[in-house]
Amino acid sequence: MRDRHKNIAKLIACFAVLTTTLSLKAQTPQLGNVLEPAALNGFDLIAAPDGSGLPVGSGTASQGKLVYETQCQVCHGEKGEGNGSANRLVGGNMQSDDAPIRTVGSFWPHATTLFDYVRRAMPATAPKSLSNTEVYQVIAYILHMNGLVGLNEIIDRRSLLQIEMPNSEGFIDNSNIR
Question: What is the mean predicted confidence (pLDDT) over 45-57?
Fold first, then answer.
Protein backbone atom coordinates (compact mmCIF):
# COMPACT_ATOMS: atom_id res chain seq x y z
CA MET A 1 0.00 0.00 0.00
CA ARG A 2 2.84 2.32 0.87
CA ASP A 3 4.37 1.83 -2.61
CA ARG A 4 1.03 2.64 -4.15
CA HIS A 5 0.89 5.98 -2.27
CA LYS A 6 4.48 6.76 -3.35
CA ASN A 7 3.60 6.04 -6.97
CA ILE A 8 0.50 8.24 -6.79
CA ALA A 9 2.58 11.03 -5.23
CA LYS A 10 5.16 10.69 -8.02
CA LEU A 11 2.42 10.83 -10.65
CA ILE A 12 0.93 13.95 -9.07
CA ALA A 13 4.38 15.59 -8.94
CA CYS A 14 5.05 14.72 -12.60
CA PHE A 15 1.63 16.02 -13.60
CA ALA A 16 2.25 19.28 -11.70
CA VAL A 17 5.64 19.79 -13.38
CA LEU A 18 4.23 18.97 -16.81
CA THR A 19 1.24 21.31 -16.54
CA THR A 20 3.38 24.13 -15.13
CA THR A 21 5.87 23.75 -17.99
CA LEU A 22 3.13 23.70 -20.60
CA SER A 23 1.39 26.73 -19.15
CA LEU A 24 4.66 28.70 -19.10
CA LYS A 25 5.35 27.69 -22.68
CA ALA A 26 1.92 28.93 -23.78
CA GLN A 27 2.55 32.43 -22.42
CA THR A 28 4.07 35.02 -24.73
CA PRO A 29 6.74 37.38 -23.45
CA GLN A 30 4.64 40.51 -24.21
CA LEU A 31 7.51 42.35 -25.90
CA GLY A 32 6.86 45.42 -28.02
CA ASN A 33 3.68 46.41 -29.80
CA VAL A 34 1.86 45.03 -32.79
CA LEU A 35 2.61 47.26 -35.78
CA GLU A 36 0.06 48.21 -38.35
CA PRO A 37 1.27 47.78 -41.97
CA ALA A 38 1.33 51.58 -42.44
CA ALA A 39 3.93 51.87 -39.67
CA LEU A 40 6.34 49.75 -41.71
CA ASN A 41 6.30 52.05 -44.75
CA GLY A 42 9.38 53.98 -43.65
CA PHE A 43 11.39 50.78 -43.45
CA ASP A 44 10.63 49.65 -46.99
CA LEU A 45 13.58 51.37 -48.62
CA ILE A 46 15.33 48.56 -50.46
CA ALA A 47 16.22 49.22 -54.08
CA ALA A 48 17.24 45.99 -55.80
CA PRO A 49 19.76 45.57 -58.63
CA ASP A 50 16.88 45.03 -61.08
CA GLY A 51 15.50 48.48 -60.20
CA SER A 52 12.55 47.31 -58.14
CA GLY A 53 12.13 49.62 -55.18
CA LEU A 54 13.64 52.65 -56.90
CA PRO A 55 11.44 55.68 -56.24
CA VAL A 56 10.35 58.50 -58.50
CA GLY A 57 12.85 61.34 -58.68
CA SER A 58 15.82 62.47 -60.73
CA GLY A 59 18.98 64.48 -60.61
CA THR A 60 22.13 65.45 -62.45
CA ALA A 61 25.75 65.55 -61.38
CA SER A 62 25.76 69.35 -61.61
CA GLN A 63 22.88 69.42 -59.09
CA GLY A 64 24.50 66.72 -56.96
CA LYS A 65 27.74 68.66 -56.51
CA LEU A 66 26.10 70.93 -53.93
CA VAL A 67 24.56 67.97 -52.08
CA TYR A 68 27.97 66.27 -52.07
CA GLU A 69 29.73 69.40 -50.78
CA THR A 70 27.26 69.87 -47.92
CA GLN A 71 26.57 66.25 -46.96
CA CYS A 72 29.47 64.04 -48.09
CA GLN A 73 32.67 66.02 -48.58
CA VAL A 74 33.55 66.31 -44.90
CA CYS A 75 34.06 62.52 -44.71
CA HIS A 76 34.77 61.45 -48.29
CA GLY A 77 36.97 64.38 -49.31
CA GLU A 78 36.62 67.09 -51.93
CA LYS A 79 37.21 64.72 -54.84
CA GLY A 80 35.90 61.48 -53.30
CA GLU A 81 39.37 60.43 -52.21
CA GLY A 82 38.32 59.62 -48.63
CA ASN A 83 39.98 61.05 -45.58
CA GLY A 84 40.66 58.15 -43.26
CA SER A 85 37.29 58.19 -41.53
CA ALA A 86 35.34 57.24 -44.66
CA ASN A 87 36.00 55.15 -47.72
CA ARG A 88 37.31 56.43 -50.97
CA LEU A 89 34.54 56.79 -53.59
CA VAL A 90 36.51 57.54 -56.74
CA GLY A 91 39.17 55.74 -58.75
CA GLY A 92 40.43 52.43 -57.52
CA ASN A 93 41.71 49.37 -59.28
CA MET A 94 40.40 45.84 -59.03
CA GLN A 95 43.20 44.46 -61.24
CA SER A 96 45.80 44.52 -58.46
CA ASP A 97 46.32 41.13 -56.82
CA ASP A 98 48.17 42.66 -53.89
CA ALA A 99 45.68 45.20 -52.62
CA PRO A 100 42.76 46.04 -54.90
CA ILE A 101 41.26 49.44 -54.15
CA ARG A 102 37.50 49.07 -53.92
CA THR A 103 35.53 52.17 -54.79
CA VAL A 104 32.16 52.90 -56.37
CA GLY A 105 33.86 53.17 -59.75
CA SER A 106 36.02 50.07 -59.50
CA PHE A 107 34.14 47.58 -57.33
CA TRP A 108 30.39 48.14 -57.12
CA PRO A 109 28.51 45.94 -59.62
CA HIS A 110 25.25 47.91 -59.91
CA ALA A 111 24.48 51.63 -59.87
CA THR A 112 21.21 50.80 -58.12
CA THR A 113 23.22 49.51 -55.15
CA LEU A 114 24.76 52.96 -54.79
CA PHE A 115 21.29 54.51 -54.67
CA ASP A 116 20.13 51.91 -52.14
CA TYR A 117 23.13 52.40 -49.86
CA VAL A 118 23.14 56.20 -49.94
CA ARG A 119 19.39 56.42 -49.32
CA ARG A 120 19.46 54.09 -46.32
CA ALA A 121 22.83 54.82 -44.72
CA MET A 122 24.08 58.29 -45.66
CA PRO A 123 25.07 60.73 -44.48
CA ALA A 124 26.55 58.77 -41.61
CA THR A 125 25.48 61.45 -39.12
CA ALA A 126 21.86 61.46 -40.34
CA PRO A 127 20.92 58.31 -42.26
CA LYS A 128 17.73 58.45 -44.36
CA SER A 129 17.68 62.25 -44.15
CA LEU A 130 18.19 62.93 -47.87
CA SER A 131 15.16 63.20 -50.13
CA ASN A 132 14.95 60.80 -53.07
CA THR A 133 15.77 63.70 -55.40
CA GLU A 134 18.88 64.56 -53.35
CA VAL A 135 19.96 60.91 -53.46
CA TYR A 136 19.60 60.83 -57.27
CA GLN A 137 21.56 64.09 -57.47
CA VAL A 138 24.43 63.01 -55.23
CA ILE A 139 24.82 59.58 -56.78
CA ALA A 140 24.86 61.24 -60.21
CA TYR A 141 27.76 63.36 -58.94
CA ILE A 142 29.60 60.32 -57.51
CA LEU A 143 29.08 58.42 -60.77
CA HIS A 144 30.27 61.52 -62.68
CA MET A 145 33.44 61.74 -60.56
CA ASN A 146 34.08 58.12 -61.60
CA GLY A 147 33.62 59.00 -65.29
CA LEU A 148 30.43 56.94 -65.63
CA VAL A 149 27.88 59.69 -66.42
CA GLY A 150 27.94 63.18 -67.89
CA LEU A 151 27.67 66.36 -65.84
CA ASN A 152 24.15 67.15 -67.07
CA GLU A 153 22.93 63.60 -67.71
CA ILE A 154 19.61 63.01 -65.95
CA ILE A 155 19.72 60.08 -63.56
CA ASP A 156 16.41 58.53 -62.56
CA ARG A 157 15.04 55.06 -61.91
CA ARG A 158 15.14 54.19 -65.62
CA SER A 159 18.52 55.63 -66.59
CA LEU A 160 20.17 54.23 -63.46
CA LEU A 161 19.55 50.73 -64.81
CA GLN A 162 21.34 51.60 -68.05
CA ILE A 163 24.64 52.51 -66.38
CA GLU A 164 27.25 49.84 -67.02
CA MET A 165 29.44 49.59 -63.94
CA PRO A 166 33.07 48.56 -64.63
CA ASN A 167 32.87 45.59 -62.24
CA SER A 168 29.39 44.39 -63.22
CA GLU A 169 30.78 40.97 -64.20
CA GLY A 170 33.02 40.72 -61.13
CA PHE A 171 30.49 38.93 -58.91
CA ILE A 172 28.84 35.52 -58.94
CA ASP A 173 25.05 35.72 -58.71
CA ASN A 174 23.91 33.31 -56.00
CA SER A 175 20.54 34.96 -55.51
CA ASN A 176 18.68 31.88 -56.75
CA ILE A 177 20.25 29.56 -54.17
CA ARG A 178 17.90 28.67 -51.35
Answer: 89
